[in-house]
């Protein structure tokens, strides 16, 4: 699904943040991405979602060289991805319900057809009572749950999540992990960046990608 060949990423003129990355993300695979703060996890996720270009090496997405993609091609590929950003990126002029429903609207689905589905997911993440609130009145943990709901509602082929349980307590983190595991079982590839060792222990079948000093170590 995604392949990195000798990928390096340098911000400005300093040392490379990521060096010689060689790995693949298989369809229907599940992996945690971990490593110390500042190791480059968010940077790697940005490369995966094509919002950063590598300074060297090659990234292939669905068998094509990402360097050849124009803007419409990137937009088209991003529609197949679900992303939970570290800073949530909810739209404040929309209600929570509208935020979560947005990927389905973009896919051209009718509200009558998706309304119950969005309600069910909002119930699952504990935000049903808040469904008509704007994101600005939510707590950090509530925003995080809304961002997760929005990322999974369209059943993406690849889910990319940056510290998706960083703002919630352990029982809620386990509940949210179940959402990602369900998505995985229904056929999606999943990449979750996290520092949370307990969370990683909850899903032993997951591959671990560990970033340290700019290099990626893969533990199957
Ligand atoms: N836009 C940028 N310009 C310059 N340097 C950057 C930029 N974004 C990140 N960096 C640097 O790249 C390194 C990796 O940052 P990154 O956010 O990818 O790490 P991280 O592993 O996600 O950290 P954390 O766990 O704290 O979120 C850091 O040293 C950071 O300062």
UniProtKB/TrEMBL annotation:
Localization: Cell inner membrane; Cell membrane
Any single GO BP term: cell division
Record's subunit section: Homodimer. Forms a membrane-associated complex with FtsX.
Membrane topology: Peripheral membrane protein
Keyword tags: ATP-binding, Cell cycle, Cell division, Cell membrane, Membrane, Nucleotide-binding
Organism: Methylocystis bryophila
Family named by the database record: Belongs to the ABC transporter superfamily.
Keyword match NAD: no
Record protein name field: Cell division ATP-binding protein FtsE
Pfam family, one: ABC_tran
Cellular component annotations (GO), alphabetically ordered: plasma membrane
Cross-referenced InterPro entries: AAA+_ATPase (IPR003593), ABC_transporter-like_ATP-bd (IPR003439), ABC_transporter-like_CS (IPR017871), ABC_transpr_LolD-like (IPR015854), Cell_div_FtsE (IPR005286), P-loop_NTPase (IPR027417)
